[in-house]
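Q: Could you fold this chain for me?
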Amino acid sequence: MLVSESNPTVPARSTPEGMVKIPAGSFIMQVVNGDQFISYPKDGYPKSISIENYYIDKYPVTNEQFKKFIEETRYSPTDTVNFLKHWSNRKIKKGEENFPVVNISYEDAQAYARWAGKRLPTEAEWQYAAQTTDGRTWPWGNIVKQSGKPEKNVSTTLTLVDYGIPDSTYCNTGDGKLYPVGKYKKGINPFGVADLTGCVWELTNDWYQSDTYQYIILKGGSYYKPGGSWWLCTGWAKAFALPANVTQGIAGL
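A: Sure. Below is the predicted structure, expressed as structure tokens.
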């Protein structure tokens, strides 16, 4: 059950700096999650969803942008565990100013968004911004370097899905190294949104309650190169960029 609400923001009269306009339209929303141990409400999918126009950041929020937020608001998180642990003594490491900010929580992301006069996108808004109106598999289209394989049932609840491996000129296919936003120009989609896959996990506003579990919807896939995990179960062995229609939930909130 979806328990989060999306709070409206003040409408912009023109495209805000650093954002792109996503035109109103309809798309077929498909949802996939490899592990059924924590259920995702997939009843009724795929289905057509109509979206009003909105703006979304062209790139993920960077370390420098998040630093400005902290300095101007004197923000201090309620939960300090792992908060900005990739910084050194609360300072951005030299050369990583334009890297995507990581090691922040759902609450931290919401606080930043409020400060910026924005909000987190819903799962449907993120997916529409990523795959556009034509139902493409990847932000740039349907081109992959290595084709995927049929899905494999690992257990009664776990299904391993191999979507193939994209060309490394379109996105980071899992080398374990983060990079400045906007590096992969060929991976920008027709709406003008960049770094939609193979960069960092991107938080959406959607928070679900499922029996005794609560989880937030993450999208996009990561530069991280997993060595194997029950939870990191959708993708392939050596890369972890994900198609635009794949949902990954994070549990234990």
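A (continued): The first strand starts at residue 19 and ends at 22.
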